[in-house]
From TrEMBL:
Domain Condensation: 79-411
UniProt entry tagged with the keyword Kinase: no
Entry-linked Pfam families: Condensation
Record's keyword terms, sorted: Ligase
UniProt-listed GO biological process terms: amino acid activation for nonribosomal peptide biosynthetic process; secondary metabolite biosynthetic process
Top-rank taxon, per record: Bacteria
Cellular component terms per the entry's GO annotation: cytoplasm
Protein's recorded name: Condensation domain-containing protein
Organismal lineage: Bacteria, Pseudomonadati, Pseudomonadota, Gammaproteobacteria, Methylococcales
Gene Ontology terms, MF aspect: ligase activity; phosphopantetheine binding
Length: 491
C-alpha cells in the first residue's frame, strides 16, 4: 500500500489525512490530489449537520458476523489487491527491497515429452486465470484474456559430470528464486526443464505468492501433471473466481464486522513486541536462500498429543519453535508471524481456485514466561484462534498505520516466520512425478520454518536468508528445534 487516506470524526469535525510513501509519487502530485479531494468534499458532499460515525458502537466479539457476502466480478475489469498482495507488490519495488516473494519447486520425471509438457502448461494457463494476471502500479490486478505463448527453456545437462550437473541445477534454482519482474509485466511464474540423462529430467517451477498461496501451488503442480498425463482432459470451470473473492473482501470492509476487526488489530498492535533480534552478519538485502532439512519420525506421536489437546499438530510445532527461539533471544519479548493456508469456507469451490487467500496471525512470545509445554501449547492455540477469527480482515493495514505514527518507538519488523501446514487437498501428484525439492524466498524474512506432512513422518525445513546469520548458529538452532520436536515432551 503506497497511499492510505484516513478519515476521522473528532468532536463532530471531519479530519482527513494522507499516509503515503512520498518517494513513490511525482513531486507535488499528492499535494494536488489532496487539495482536489478537499475541494470536492466542500463543494459536493459536506452538509451542515452531517456527522461521521454518530451512534456507532463496536459490539462484543461474539456478536459480530464475519461472514463474507460473495460479490461477482466482471472478468474483463481490474480488481483490487488484497492487503497481503499489496505487501508482496511493494516488496518487488526499489522501495521494498526488490524481492519477489515466491516458491520454487522441482519435479523429477522419467522419459519427459517436452511437447506434451508445453501443451500441458498452455492448458494450465488457460484453466487457472491467475497465471494470466498482471499487477499494476496503482494497486489493481487484471486477468489478461490472452497471453503470448510461454516457451519452456530447456537446459541439456546429459553430458555434464555429476558435480557440474549439481552446480548447474543450483544456479537454476538461485536464478529462479532471484527473478523479480517489474510490476505490470507478465508472467509471475517461471517454468524450466533440465535434462539429466537419457531417462530422467527435472521440471523447475517457481510461482510468486502474489498470485498463488501454498494450497494454490499444490493445485498448480497437480494440474500440470494431470494435463501432461491426460492431454485430452477438459478444463474445469468454477463458479467462483479469485476476482469474486477480492471484491467480496473489499465489500466486507464496509461492514460493522470489519470495523470491529480493525479495533481488535489496533489494540493488539499497540503492544505487540517486534520480531526476534539475533546477532546478524549483514544488514543488507536478501541475497539468496539456504535450506536446512531434517525428517521427524515422531510425527505420529505429535499428532496424537495434539488430538488429545484438541489443537492442530502445527501448534505443537510452533510452540517448540518459540521455545528454541526464546533460548537464543536476549530475554526480551518478541513476535513470530504465522501465515495460514486455511481458506474461509465461503463457497464450495473455494479450495479449488488459484489465488492468495493467506490468513495471518502474530504470536507474541515472552521468554521469561514459566509455563509447562502443554500450557504453552494451549496458550499459543488460543492466541492464534483470536487472530484467525478476525478474517478476512488481515490486520496489515492497521500494522502499517501503527508503524507510520510519529510517536512509534518500537520496530514493527518481523523477520522470523512459522509457515502453517498446507491443508489436506485432493490434488495429488501422479506416480511418475516426484516432488524432490522446494525453496522459498520472502521479502524481509530471515528465517521461515516450513513443514511437509508425509503421513508417518514430517519434513522439517528452514529457509534462511543467506549471509544474514552465522551458519553455525542457525544450524545449531535448527538442530535444537529438531530435538525439541522429537524429544518427547508431548508424550
Amino acid at each position: 500500500m503506497y497511499l492510505d487516506c484516513q478519515v476521522y470524526d473528532i468532536n463532530g469535525e471531519l479530519q482527513i489525512s494522507f499516509d503515503a510513501v512520498m518517494a513513490y509519487y511525482q513531486t507535488g502530485l499528492l499535494e494536488h490530489v489532496f487539495a482536489e479531494l478537499i475541494h470536492a468534499l466542500q463543494t459536493t458532499m459536506l452538509k451542515p449537520r452531517c456527522h461521521i460515525g454518530r451512534d456507532c458502537r463496536y459490539p462484543e466479539h461474539g456478536d459480530v458476523n464475519h461472514s463474507l457476502t460473495i460479490v461477482r466480478a466482471d472478468p474483463l475489469k481490474s480488481f483490487p489487491l488484497t492487503e497481503l498482495q499489496q505487501a508482496y507488490a511493494f516488496g518487488k519495488t526499489a522501495y521494498g527491497g526488490e524481492v519477489a516473494t515466491q516458491v520454487y519447486s522441482a519435479l523429477r520425471v522419467k522419459h519427459l515429452d517436452l511437447a506434451r509438457l508445453q501443451a500441458a502448461l498452455a492448458k494450465l494457463i488457460a484453466n487457472h486465470v491467475m497465471l494470466r494476471a498482471v499487477i499494476g502500479l496503482e494497486g489493481q490486478q487484471k486477468i489478461l484474456a490472452s497471453v503470448p505463448d510461454y516457451r519452456i527453456k530447456v537446459d541439456d545437462l546429459r553430458l555434464a559430470e555429476p558435480e557440474q550437473q549439481q552446480a548447474a541445477i543450483a544456479k537454476i534454482e538461485r536464478d529462479m528464486l532471484m527473478r523479480n519482474g517489474p510490476l505490470g509485466d507478465w508472467p509471475h511464474f517461471e517454468l524450466r526443464v533440465s535434462l539429466l540423462d537419457h531417462e530422467q529430467a527435472l521440471i523447475h517451477f517457481s510461482v510468486e505468492l502474489l498470485i498463488a498461496d501454498a494450497l494454490s501451488l499444490e493445485i498448480l503442480r497437480a494440474d500440470l501433471c494431470r494435463f501432461y498425463q491426460q492431454p485430452e482432459a477438459d478444463l474445469t470451470p468454477r463458479d467462483l473466481s479469485y476476482a469474486d473473492y477480492c471484491l467480496s473482501v473489499k465489500h466486507y470492509e464496509q461492514t460493522l464486522a470489519f470495523q470491529h476487526s480493525q479495533a481488535y488489530w489496533q489494540q493488539k498492535f499497540s503492544t505487540l513486541p517486534s520480531g526476534l533480534h539475533l546477532a546478524r552478519l549483514n544488514s543488507g538485502g536478501h541475497i539468496g536462500t539456504v535450506r536446512l532439512d531434517a525428517v521427524l519420525t515422531e510425527w505420529p506421536k505429535i499428532k496424537q498429543y495434539a488430538q488429545s489437546l484438541n489443537v492442530p499438530p502445527s501448534v505443537v510445532l510452533l510452540t517448540a519453535y518459540a521455545k528454541v527461539l526464546s533460548a537464543w533471544s536476549d530475554g526480551q519479548a518478541f513476535s513470530i508471524v504465522i501465515p495460514s493456508w486455511q481458506r474461509l469456507p465461503v463457497h464450495p469451490d473455494i479450495n479449488h481456485i488459484v489465488g492468495d487467500f493467506t490468513r495471518l496471525a502474530w504470536l507474541p512470545v515472552n521468554p521469561q514466561q514459566t509455563l509447562s509445554f502443554t500450557e504453552h501449547v494451549l496458550a499459543v492455540h488460543a492466541e492464534l484462534q483470536r487472530d484467525f477469527a478476525e478474517a478476512p480482515a488481515s490486520g496489515l493495514s492497521v500494522l502499517r498505520k501503527q508503524a507510520l505514527k510519529p510517536a512509534q518507538r518500537r520496530s514493527l519488523k518481523f523477520p522470523i516466520v512459522f509457515t502453517d501446514l498446507v491443508p489436506e487437498h485432493e490434488s495429488k501428484l501422479p506416480a511418475e512425478f516426484s516432488l524432490t525439492k522446494t525453496l522459498s524466498r520472502t521479502a524481509h524474512v530471515d528465517i521461515d520454518n516450513i513443514s511437509t506432512d508425509h503421513g508417518d513422518t514430517l519434513g522439517l525445513h528452514w529457509d534462511v536468508a543467506e549471509a544474514v546469520y552465522a551458519v553455525a548458529d542457525v544450524e545449531l538452532m535448527f538442530k535444537e528445534y529438531w530435538g525439541v520436536c522429537g524429544g518427547g515432551q508431548y508424550c
